[in-house]
Design goal:
Length: 150
């Protein structure tokens, strides 16, 4: 038991849905992270028919992007577009892959950068800053402890 307590819990140690839910709640309660005025009307990609239904979808996407940058340092907007993209279903014609909305990803990354969670790399892309890594690991540790109690 003493060996487990010495080892720190990071984002890789918890399941993605539980971490994203907890970090989205943290962002929602934070006064530094603001919801854009266009968030209720914008679609997340060309391949979608409607805008997201949930009120918290922007915070959930931001938490997911933060986790993705944590796991893949050096990831850029284009790579995140491919990650969140999907098939554009065109009726009876064949499906084609389409990238996700670039503006949403860029606005989330800018807000995370202003919060000092991410930082730009010299050769392009983003990575989690030291402060951001401590923040994400602290939330992952609380999620891990909640999972152990249940």
């Amino acid at each position: 038991m003493a060996e487990e307590e010495q080892r720190g819990i990071c984002v890789r140690d918890v399941t993605a849905p539980s971490f994203i839910e907890a970090y989205a709640e943290h962002l929602k309660n934070s006064d530094k992270f603001e919801l854009p005025v266009w968030s209720d009307t914008v679609k997340t990609g060309v391949f979608k028919e409607l805008a997201p239904y949930g009120d918290d979808w922007y915070y959930i996407r931001a938490a997911s992007i933060a986790r993705r940058v944590y796991l893949n340092p050096g990831v850029g907007v284009g790579q995140l577009q491919r990650w969140y993209g999907g098939n554009y279903r065109r009726g009876c014609r064949t499906e084609h892959f389409r990238k996700a909305n670039k503006g949403i990803i860029r606005s989330v990354l800018l807000q995370l950068e202003n919060m000092k969670v991410t930082e730009k790399l010299e050769n392009g892309g983003r990575r989690i800053s030291r402060v951001g890594q401590q923040d994400l690991d602290r939330i992952a540790g609380s999620v891990f402890r909640e999972g152990e109690e249940d």
